[in-house]
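Illustration 12: Bacteriohemerythrin.
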Amino acid sequence: MMIPWKDAYDIGIEKIDCQHRQLLVKLNEFMDACNNRQGAEKIEETLKFLKDYTLEHFGSEEEVMEDIHFPELADHRKEHAQFVKTVLELEESVKAKGTSVLTTIKLNRMLTDWLINHISKCDKLIAAYMNQQKGTA
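Figure caption equivalent — predicted structure in token form:
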């Protein structure tokens, strides 16, 4: 089942929205592979993408938050760090034990949860705060 991009996921910061769309494309490719019983082959590629992606994307996002003096920057950073830790743990697990159905399910669930909860809730706060700052400026 593919997850379509919803306008509700847009936070209104072009660079960040583009990166979020990229993540969704990757998530859908991975889900598609899982549905075709090819999740195991695709998991390493997906984890590698995530490692590179999180470095670039979280860097961009944190830069924006610093620029606007976002009050919840520390909490947001913690969530980013937790996500990276989970990706690295999954990668270690795959290296040590190989891929299992459980790892593919875990990665799938983690990405879906991140997309739905983090982007549509936490990242939205950045845009809301930014707009509020513009309103008071």
